[in-house]
Design a protein that fits this description.
60 strands; 6-stranded mixed β-sheet; 1 helix; globular; 670 residues; Immunoglobulin-like; mainly beta
């Protein structure tokens, strides 16, 4: 046998005997064994990692193109040091910081034939925005405009001006000029949010002073309080350079010269007392409407612990509504929307009206539940906290943005005793009194004063060491302390933080509420039930949902007693539900979907009794559209919209019902 080789042009073909060819081939292969690893099946890089430029808080992605015999092994390095678990052909960094600027990334690739190391790729990190010149306050006469300006440094900057914490439509330049002002604009606070892909920063507040004849935009409101507890009255007037004087009846109250007046330790003798306030400046004066104080003689009798819980989701979209129940036996059940695994049983079908049991860890028993817009939390008897459902902004606290179809444990530094869920953020109280928060932080609702969009792992809320409970609204948070005080932080455009202002607070402030036994929150509303079962409410009242009657159309920025003999309450975006000591359900606010449960679709601005439900123990309000209650025998009642089958009743249409209707065959107290 001979082998014939084609030679370069001009040379003769030549032949080798087969034995000589085989000898030559063996020698060649032996030589290859000692050659560079890119030969004979060793890895060979055909595309090197490329340098990347990203903003701080973003992630950078490095990849490599390689050929070679399988299996190939990868080990990425940062500045020459192996990165743990970075063993794929692509490496995505965690969120980078400015300290990562200039870091060198490379990858070592190996197989059974050899090893090769890539070239280094450099990471460049751009900073978030920095404000270099802050806006300053302006003083104008009524009818004039005011102009605010901010200067900032950074790449790809975007601007958004806010008035009293709310975005001003179209105000997206470095300078903003108001429309013609009125005295109602006096005291408005303007801030500029400056953003780029690396984060955002909020300017110092700039206050607008509008000079003119004084006028009230918020008068004190009538309220009820238990004897011995403080009564807080708030007001707001415009006109510039105002001096305030409160009156009790026709007599001035000594030292009461601010927009807020607190009657400390009200007595039965104060029942029926009337309060008003006068605001004056050099152009004249104005006097507010009169508020009447009702003082009740009530013993300390805190609401009883709940043996079972029902929770409606906090979203504002009817198609994504769902219901979660914690039964008295510690099991958790869900029905309605399930697009991201809100059932917690491993499924993710769209909607299902049939109650399904969540797959908790083997032998586990839940003692609390909390529901956000599209995520769920459960506190187990051993103090562990689990979450499932949507996780797009870290609301499950898992360090990523992936949804969970079954409960995943939240890594907390100790056992928890209470939990809460806002629309996109989560809270937990540990046994040592500390509060931890995670998820959405667009309004500062995580309470650490940071200016990051979201946090996907639990972070401590500074300064709180004696908390026993928490509650969460759309973008704000509450903590109840062991001594009955209530702290609040986050969004405040409707006065939901209770400090008398409408300014966002990134760290906790004192609401002024005292002797509180239970807290609730929803939408832009905060609720507190005192030891004497008085319901305090504050925040948004755009739909009359605080139940203060037709004469009160403004938001309320301080805790105000709105009802007595209350054991539970729940707030949604635009309606309020209350469970009374005698088992009635009362409701006020919007009612287009029958969410007030009184058999009509007529809105109410006073608390009105729901029909067909009695012996209620607890209530929950869903987004804008539906209500729920558990009654003494364990039955669950639902009413309002049913678009996502969240009422759990196949006999009801998707339009739902305005009459509370039992969820068939379901018992929350088995």
């Amino acid at each position: 046998m001979t082998m014939t080789f084609a030679l370069p042009a001009g040379l003769r073909a030549w032949r080798l005997p087969s034995w000589l060819f085989l000898l030559f081939l063996a020698a060649a292969l032996a030589g290859l064994a000692g050659c560079d690893s890119t030969s004979a099946g060793g890895p060979r890089i055909d595309r090197q990692p490329t340098s990347q430029t990203v903003f701080q808080t973003q992630s950078a992605s490095f990849s490599v193109g390689v050929e070679g015999a399988f299996p190939l092994r990868f080990q990425w390095r940062k500045n020459g040091v192996d990165i743990p678990q970075a063993t794929g052909f692509t490496y995505v960094t965690p969120a980078v910081t400015l300290d990562d600027d200039g870091a060198k990334y490379s990858v070592v690739i190996s197989n059974d034939k050899g090893t090769v190391t890539s070239a280094e790729a450099t990471l460049s990190v751009k900073p978030g925005p920095t404000i270099t010149t802050q806006p300053v306050g302006q003083t104008v006469n009524a009818g004039a405009t005011a102009t605010f300006s901010v200067q900032a440094s950074g790449d790809s900057l975007v601007y958004q001006w806010r008035r009293n914490g709310l975005d001003v439509t179209g105000a997206t330049a470095a300078t903003y000029t108001t429309p013609a002002t009125t005295v109602a604009d006096d005291g408005a606070v303007y801030t500029a949010v400056v953003l780029n892909p690396g984060g955002f920063v909020i300017s110092d507040p700039a206050t607008l002073v509008v000079s003119g004849q004084p006028a009230f935009s918020l008068s004190p409101v009538s309220q009820v309080i238990a004897a011995g507890r403080p009564a807080i009255f708030s007001s707001r007037a415009g006109g510039g350079n105002l001096a305030y004087q409160w009156q009790r009846g026709s007599q001035p109250v000594a030292g009461a010269n601010t927009p807020i007046y607190v009657l400390q330790g009200s007595e039965l003798a104060d029942d029926g007392a009337q309060f008003s306030v006068t605001a004056s400046n050099s152009t004249g004066s104005a006097t507010s409407a009169v508020a009447t104080l009702t003082v009740l003689d009530r013993p300390s009798n805190p609401p009883p612990a709940l043996i079972a819980e029902v929770a409606a989701n906090r979203g504002d979209t009817a198609t994504e509504s769902f219901t979660v129940v914690r039964k008295s036996d510690g099991s958790v059940w869900q029905w309605g929307y399930n697009g991201e695994g809100q059932r917690g049983d491993g499924t993710s079908q769209n909607v299902n009206e049939t109650p399904a049991r969540t797959t908790l860890p083997a032998g586990a028993s839940a003692v609390r539940i909390a529901v956000g817009a599209r995520h769920v939390l459960a506190l187990l008897a051993d103090g562990s906290v689990y979450g499932w459902g949507l996780n797009n902004i870290g609301q499950l606290g898992q360090g990523d943005s992936l949804p969970r179809l079954t409960p995943a444990r939240v890594a907390l530094p100790g056992p928890a005793v209470a939990i809460a869920a806002g629309r996109g953020h989560s809270l937990a109280v540990l046994g040592d009194g500390r509060v931890f928060a995670w998820g959405d932080n667009g309004s500062g609702q995580l309470g650490d004063g940071s200016l990051v969009f979201f946090v996907n792992t639990p972070q401590a809320v500074p300064g709180i060491t004696e908390a026993v409970d928490v509650a969460a609204g759309t973008g704000h948070s509450l903590a109840m302390l062991a001594d009955g005080r209530v702290l609040a932080w986050g969004g405040n455009a409707s006065g939901q933080l209770g400090d008398g202002t409408v300014l966002r607070k990134g760290t906790p402030v004192d609401t002024g509420a005292r002797a509180v036994s239970r807290i609730r929150a929803g939408g832009n509303i905060s609720l507190a039930i005192t030891e004497e079962r008085i319901l305090l409410a504050w925040g948004e009242n755009s739909a009359g949902q605080l139940g203060l009657g037709p004469s009160v159309t403004t938001d309320i920025p301080t805790p105000t007693g709105v009802a007595a003999d209350v054991v539970d309450a729940a707030a949604a975006d635009t309606f309020l539900l209350v469970a009374t000591t005698d088992g009635r359900v009362l409701a006020s606010g919007e009612n287009a979907a029958g969410q007030l449960g009184n058999g009509t679709t007529t809105a109410r601005n006073v608390l009105t009794q729901a029909t067909a439900v009695s012996d209620a123990l607890t209530v929950s309000a869903g987004g804008r559209y539906f209500g729920l209650a558990i009654v003494a025998d364990g039955g669950v009642f639902a009413w309002g919209d049913n678009t996502a089958e969240q009422l759990g009743n196949s006999s009801l249409p998707v339009s739902g019902t305005s009459t509370p209707t039992a969820v068939p065959g379901f018992d929350a107290v088995p």
